[in-house]
Amino acid sequence: MDRSVAGSKTGSDSSQATEAVSDSDGADGRTRGRLRELTERRSLPALAVASVAVLVVVFYYPVSTVFVDAVLIEGRLTLRVFRDILTDPFYFGELARLLAGNSPLAVAEAILTGNARLGIVGFTAYQAALSTVASVLLGVPLAYLLARYEFPGRETIRSVTILPFVLPSIMVAVGFYATFGADGTLNAALALVGLGPVDLLPSLTAIVVAHAFYNAPLVARITTAAWESVDASAVETARSLGASPHRAFRDVVWPQVAPSIFMGAALTFVFTFGTFPIVLALGGFELATVEVFIYRLIRDLNYAEGAALALVELAISLALLYGYLRYEAANTVESGGIRPQERRPLRPPSLSVRELLPRVGLAAYAVVAVVLFVAPIASMLYASVSGPTGLTLEHYRFLVERQTTGAAFQVRPGPAVRNSLLFGAAALAVALPMGVVVSVLTTRNYRGRTLVGTVAMAPLAVSGIIVGLGLLRGLVFGVEVGDWRLAVGGPLAIIAAHAVAGYPFVVRIVAPELDALDSQLTESARALGASRARALLDVELPLVWPAVVAGAAFAFALSVGEFTATAVLASGTGQYTMPIAIERFVGRRLGPATAMGVVLLVVTSVSFLLIDRLGGDRVGL
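The structure corresponding to this sequence follows.
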């Protein structure tokens, strides 16, 4: 064959092979592109389905297994337990007498003569109302200080305003005992000035003050954001039209700030209505709320009555939560395009009465705030390094000795810290993506969005005891599916309980930020061919990233400090955490409990503040 012909043939074959490879690569590229497009288009619905499945498996199913005990008695369906609870004055006071058919006149006479009974449910609502009032009275002045004044350390104070809310309840209880107990710092200070000791534990006052310690910073955080969103131009316009400063505040500022105060109060009432560790530690069974009495019934193995009472509590809590979400949706105000009011220096530029009076009031508030917010933590710190003979490190030495020489059945600090951190990280890995997905679902415009939000936020309203018991009796003990028995280990159940408790807070932080975004940004991305998931990843999440990181801080800190469900699930196992260790120590000596409380405080505070700093200043609930 001629060389030129052979070369031509070889070149032709090579060209055809190249074209074939090119066509093959092109086909593979198109296939990969279609697969990627399909994956992006289906990923968000798939994540939504996965989130719902996780919620059903680790929350709704376990909780439902507990509630079955309330209606299935000796193999028969009955509502007898509910009827007994609703008509028992021990639970519902005078309302129970009405439901039992008593004369309304007799009930009214009991109320007018002061002989009316509140019942367990009535007392729970009463202490929640008192706690809400105290939280608002303490939180609103702090919001005013942060929103209207500039001073050194303002950003740091703003950053730590939410820290008490994520501090473990058992640690706060130890701090209150160290402050207001018979041998606490308050009585020590009174003795220095010749005053007699006061006995505040157990008491309703201690419960209300402890609830204010938790929730006043929450009210302040929500109200501060609203106060900073007041348009200075509107205030200046009112003043230019002749309005006095008081009138401008009443007609312009108050209508914009009041909804946030009411939202903070409503959220506080929801939280304090379902309180458990604080009431149990500072009030005992003498001042039992619904949650504490559920714990007592379950501890006494009275599952039917405990489950029925828990279901009644759940109905009340869900109704409160639904009302709060409706009110929040109706009063959310867009903050874009406003000019916030300038902050005034905290040090008065003049000595006029007008300049001094607000600052004198803030100084008095600072004294009260130091006593209520700083004293419990400071007292715990002091108690951890003090003893009968003065300052000592004996309590920390006890922790070290327990770690190195403690018996296998004893609680040791090292495993407690390790378990808390591992459970926190694992719970965060579940709670954060669930919270983001639920935030997306609850910020889309469709009918029934509030109802979906209420169902998704139900873990806020359900007793941690019920969640822990449901996981124990369901997933830990095992579920029979045909010939198989499916069961999970104690650590997985604890992680599930922590994730369920943490993800609603991710939703409460991320959802408002997503809802406030300009919808045209997402629509533009979709018009350019981006899928819904791609628009979320490339446009929305980068814009709300500080809120996502702040939600992660909440989820992690709440997991590290979770006590209620963990107390149920860790019983009889070695999977104890730092809060459980504190509870075990406090039953013996207060000193080691305060030392362990300091360790927990350091771990919780450092982790939360680090993540919160990464997330920036956009944290709310």
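The beta strands are 72-73, 76-77, 149-150, 344-345, 386-387, 390-391, 479-481, 484-486.
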